[in-house]
Amino acid sequence: MGDEVVRARANAFDVWDFPGTPWTTPKPLSESRVAIVTTAGLRPDGSRNWVPGDQGFVVLPGDRRDLTLAHTSQNFDRTAVLEDLNVVYPVDRLAELADRGVIASVATEHLAFMGAQRDHTLTTLRLDTGPAAAKVLRDDGVDVVLLTPV
User: Is residue 93 a contact partner of residue 64, using CB atoms and an 8 Å limit?
Assistant: First the structure.
C-alpha cells in the first residue's frame, strides 16, 4: 500500500480535538528530572503481553534489564530496536546527560504504552490510564518527559 493511500485513510479517522494547549514554563533541563514514555510496546519480562486495543501502560525499570519488545503491529520495523534498545528506550543516553550535568537526574521509573491503537479517540487513555500514568511520573518527581513514539 502506497504512502498516499495510507495518508488518505489516516485523515479519515475521527480523533479527539483538544480545545486548547496548556502551557507551563518548564525548569531548565539542568534542574529537571527526566523520564521516558515510549509507545514501542516494551514490557518487563514476565509481565502481561500487549493485546490489540490495550490502552494501558506498564512501568519500566530505570535501566535496560529484562525488557522485551512486545509491539503488536506487524508493520513495526524491529530492526533498529534489536540493534540498540536506545532507539525507543534511550535510558543510557539520559544517564550520560545526567552524568554531564545537562539534566539533573533520570527518573527511576519510565512508562511503555502500545502505540498501535484502533480507537483513535483514545477515550480510555485520555480519561483513565493517561492520568494514572501522569501520577506515576509525578510521584517520582519527573519534570520532563521524553516521548519516543513508534
Answer: no
Beta pairing class for 33-38 and 109-113: parallel
Residue 111's nearest CA partner among 35, 47, 33, 52 is 35
Q: Rounded to an integer, what distance in angstroms lies between the CA atom of residue 50 and that of residue 57?
A: 9
Span 127-147, pLDDT tens digits: 899 999 999 999 999 999 999
Q: Which residue has the cell 512486545?
A: 70
Residue 64 amino acid letter: R
Secondary structure class of 93 (helix, strand, coil): helix
Locus of grid cell 525548569: 27
Cα 125 to chain center, whole Å?
12
Is the pTM higher than 0.85? The answer reads no
Q: Tell me: pLDDT of 108 over 90.
A: yes
- Contact partners, residue 43, CB within 8 Å, separation at least 6: 49, 50, 58, 67, 68, 70, 112
Rounded CA separation 43/64 (Å): 11
